Amino acid sequence: MGDSDDDDIPELSSHTLAALQEFYDEQQRRKTDPGENNKYNIGVIEENWQLSQFWYSEETALRLATEAIIAAGKGGRIACVSAPSVYQKLRELDGEDFSVCILEYDKRFAVYGEEFIYYDYNDPLNLPKKLTPHSFNIVIADPPYLSEECLRKTAETIKYLTQGKILLCTGAIMEKEAAELLGVKMCRFIPKHTRNLANEFRCYVNYDSGLNSEANYS
Q1: Domain residue limits at 160
Q2: Could you tell me the pTM of the whole model?
């Protein structure tokens, strides 16, 4: 290309370049530090499809969070295993009658401080000492992959953590494996995601749950 072609290319002023850089830096900061006001909003940390992340809709996250609070009871402890949008909704509710932690592979969720626990389902019992056996009133889990291996390994974590109650969210095609591994049954309630998934998604529990009431069928 000749010099005349270069002359036709507009040059941005130093002020504009600085403003663009500031905007870019702010976007990058938000991806890693959502800020106090909206840090628990679902979607503030974007889905990473390579990690098989698909966030629940606001309505579903609220329903599951409410179910977990009721099941845990006053002063109960709730563990969210690979279920970050339920964790976010629980923290958004900011109740004083329960405590919650998030076990998650994605280290972006480390912004949640001490409640974040790095978790890899491939090493299901590699957990910090503060997570003692059977120390949670309820465990809500959403294994990242629809495979027997993933569910089986995640089930090891669930059974280690829970005092008994389990709320599992996974595909309808995993119903048989879920029953065999965790003794859970499919609920009437049908969870929804912010994006439409190719596979039908369902909830499973092993206790008398409000997710089976007619009012919460969908």
Answers
A1: 56-205
A2: 0.76
